[in-house]
Design a protein that fits this description.
With about 140 residues, this protein is mostly beta strands. The chain has a single domain (about 5-135), classed as Trefoil (Acidic Fibroblast Growth Factor, subunit A) (Trefoil). It has strands spanning about 10, 20-25, 35-40, 50-55, 65-70, 75-80, 90-95, 105-115, 120-125. β4 and β5 (about 65-70) form a beta hairpin. It is globular. The model has no long low-confidence stretch (mean pLDDT about 90).
């Protein structure tokens, strides 16, 4: 398994283990509005499915804290909408990407290898303790 510290500066694509769909910022422009939804979409190789990881706290520990920026829209970061800890809280792209915005701080927990697709990880919001997942386990686009 990969050490989460080795993910600092890496560009990755997050695929759902069950569906193979990619975590996607719903945009085709470089500077979408804050609150643009992040959802599941069939893997298509577009840059709105590519994310850059940056450690902002805890480097060298077992659970460093990351901000996760979108490659297509470099000014937008993975954001837990309003920082809510409620189930079904949407995930969006939002400006920022600093260690002071708890909505945008994430821990990446490694869980093993997925054949030819790479590392299995869980993405947990640092503040709320909730995880990124598919709404009702859905496999359709959107």
């Amino acid at each position: 398994m990969i050490d989460p510290n080795d993910l600092d500066g890496r560009t990755v694509c997050f695929l759902n283990f069950a569906t193979g769909n990619a975590m996607t910022l719903d945009t085709q422009v470089d500077d979408p509005s804050d609150g643009t939804k992040v959802h599941s979409w069939v893997l298509n190789g577009n840059n709105n499915q590519v994310w850059k990881l940056k450690i902002v706290d805890g480097k060298g520990t077992e659970t460093p804290t990351f901000v996760i920026g979108n490659k297509r829209a470099p000014g937008k970061f993975l954001d837990l909408y309003h920082g809510s800890s409620s189930n079904n809280t949407k995930i969006t792209g939002w400006a920022g990407g600093t260690e002071g915005n708890y909505h945008q701080l994430w821990n990446i927990q490694t869980r093993g290898n997925w054949a030819d697709k790479g590392q299995i990880v869980k993405i947990q919001n640092y503040n709320a303790g909730t995880f990124v997942d598919l709404h009702n386990g859905g496999s359709s686009n959107g």
